[in-house]
Amino acid sequence: MANQITKDMIIGQILQIDRGLVPILMNAGMHCLGCPSSQMESIGEACMVHGIDANELIGKLNSYLETANK
Question: What total number of domains does the chain contain?
Answer without folding.
Answer: 1
